[in-house]
Amino acid sequence: MLRRPLQELRVIARDPLLLLLIVAIMAALVVFVLVPVVRVLLVSFQTPDGFGLDNYELLAQRRLYRNALRNSLLVGAVVGVLGVALGYVAAFVLTRTDVPLKRVLSSLMLMPIISPPFSGAISILFLFGFNGLVTRQLLGLQDFSIYGFGGVVLSQVFTFAPIAYLNLRGVLAGINPTLEDAALNMGASRWQVFWRVVFPLSIPGIASAFLVVLIESMADFGNPLVLAGAAFPMLAPQAYLEITGSFNLPRGAMLAGVLLLPSLTAFAIQRYYISKRQYVTVTGKPTASTSKAVSPAAKWTMYGIVVAFGLLVVAFYAVILLGAVTRVWGFDYTLTLRHFQYVFSVGWDTIKDTLLVALISTPISGVLGMLIAFLVVRRRFPGRAAMEFTSILNFAVPGTVAGIGYILAFNGPPLILTGTLTILVLNFVFRYVPNGIQAGIAVLNQIDPSIEEAAQNLGASAITTFRKVTLPLIAPAFFSGLVFAFVRAMTAISAAIFLVSANWNLMTVQILNEVGSGRLGVAAAYSMVLLVIVMVAFGVINRLVGRAAQDASTLRF
Amino acid sequence: MPADLRILDLRKEFESHDGGATVVAVDDVTLEVEKGTLITLLGPSGCGKTTLLRMIAGFEEPTKGQIWFGDKRVDRLAPNLRDTAMVFQSYAIFPHLNVFENVAFGLRMKRLSKEQVAKQVNDVLELVGLGHLGHRQPSQLSGGQQQRVALARSIVMEPRLLLFDEPLSNLDAKLREQMRQEIRELQQRLGITSVYVTHDQIEAMSMSDLVVVMNAGRVEQVGTPLEIYARPVNRFVADFIGNANFVEAQVVDAERVRLGAAVLPLAEPTAVAVGGRVTVVVRPESLELGPAPAGGARGERYLSGRVTRATFLGSHAEYLVNVEGVGELQADVRNPVQLGLLQVGDEVTLTSGALHALPVG
User: Fold this and answer.
1) Is A464 in Cβ contact with B78 (below 8 Å)?
2) What count of CB pairs under 8 Å joins A to B?
3) Digit-coded pLDDT (tens) for B311-338
4) Does B5-239 carry CATH code 3.20.20.140?
5) Where are the domain boundaries for CATH 3.40.50.300 in chain B?
6) Are A554 and B137 inside 8 Å of each other by CB?
7) So what's the ipTM on this one?
């Protein structure tokens, strides 16, 4: 039984540096990914006199907690269905039909992904809040409340439909259009072609996208905190309130534990069941992929939906911009730069902190992601599967859980990190490395392993091979991992809110604070600054990727 | 002075993917290769030849056994410390480096000076006829040029051992023939000991000093191309190398066997007792066909039969002849254009030179 692991270990040990690296990465994954989650679960079972299920029994006893669970699941399911429907329509229209302005619409669809996860919520307050432009000014409603189910669903669909779109775009683009031709050729009507061929082929992708959106929605912190309101409790904000409001760690941990279970389940289904059932038809030949399965009427109806969403995105950001330069929204609409002045004076340190955390964690996360991908795909060592699993576990761990876990794990010896820059950086590195890993694994699987063997054969050690050959070849994945890590580090909130301190504060946390104290104008100004930073970084890295992609084009021979 | 490459009882087992029984890819192979020789590992796919090569390079870990380069044991050494240079089936050219940098890669790993690297790379590019293409990207090269880059990248290392993993299988037939000669000439000129894996018997026959015929993880026979063709040790080797008819024959005396109605000489004396049975290998090109004489038999060295299939192939014709008392034999006749093509149903006589009897047991 032990022969194989021992032999693998012996082979790895021939390259001591490699062995050291593997051990170090594994130790780091245990300490910074596993331990915090385990600590949350342990504390959630903690009672005044030892361990027990007392905290979980509260779930049955207290309506507040029961409702929080029910509301989170309900919102997750509804947002999942609506988000995926919208994402599918957009993906179909933008990949399979010939309509104008595809690039612009696609960019607009993706805008919410690179914004702070609750900028939609702020726009909704501007438009539909108590002093909202639509509800108060236009309709003159006095007692309309956007808070609760409707508000959260609206803002989350806006935030997460783009993620469904991103997932489904690849699925739909991968369905070989000749299958449609074949079905038509055999006498199927357009309607039948869609429901009998195109749709069944995209079901695994749809299920996968649904679960991803469900996970994101349940883990979402910002939108519910802004829009759920007191009458509509939800798990993530409730856990936060238990800890920061009532200083009740065990109960907060219990709610986080409840949040973790559906997320992990959905993740497990998505990863180990559905993803193995994707029908991606890979052919070397580029094919014109215009779908014949939709009638013009259906096509233009769907196009209308996509355009409407695009316009909504434009409107939301326009409203934030307007809010940022308006004196007091709802009362005094004179233009002013006061809010920006405030942001750049009082908030200057926060901006610097945010940038610093993002700039430190992004490259670390990027390189670590590629290293782990390289090790997992190309090396055989005991614990390889465990390394892969742990490194991408954070896909499924809601930020709230990770945040609470970090306070629990690093608030005392042996590692005291609370209140430091380090804890933010570590949290971001390990939370946002999974995307880089996934991208790296996908690209590596496309690269002939003998290219790396050739390097070794010519005298390069494992680490040199990675540096000189693997890394340049997976540059596109590396850069897309960087973009993701940077955007996420800039816009993170759910874990970060537990980890910020007087010394190290983040813009997202500050935005929520301003919303909480009713200063929407300042919140909007912060959001605009954040958005501009992200867009600039996005543009810069994209240019780099463009160059890297050119080099990588030599890959295909 | 020990041989340049020695392989002792080398074994490789893989666990099958469904967790079931282990698969033996290389089954206790022992081999010696003298300095400067080119040895081919020849066999059908799945015979273990590539696994054996990858163990020599260090990409696979032997389950047991030893590998020695001269007096240095290497089987526990990392691949980058072994001083072998491999030409991969897929060429494995670094797509992000140009031709010059591809060839320079290994020299830079050795930390040679800039000038040395430039000189050696340019020399070797000249040698393989790519002197003017140093700045090309790999994607701008034809298949044959990529092959030459891979070759240059290996020989510039002046390795102790050159390894080839079916390097010509991605080239078209004409180019393959040309590269075969170039590789062999280079190898002989540089005198580098080489191990060459292929499933193509023509490649093996035309390039090697020694051929190792492998089957199901085991070495069936080691010999010069002539030896394995003329004196195969068993039916597998005889069948895999070239075409062969296998015929049961009866030993007349140590030097002759009876085949149907004919008595034919053996190439080597047999140890099988008089009256015993042996299997003889009859190569199609060793059979001589002639028209049947009007008066019947032509003597004890001749068989008679009737053509059942005739295939014209230009340089030669392939006939299937139903031979009395023997069964169907394939016979190849050269120059059918001038000798005239036989037709199905023609009566013929056949004879052969000395036959090779497969060793018994």
Assistant:
1) no
2) 86
3) 999 999 999 999 988 999 999 999 988 8
4) no
5) 5-239
6) yes
7) 0.83
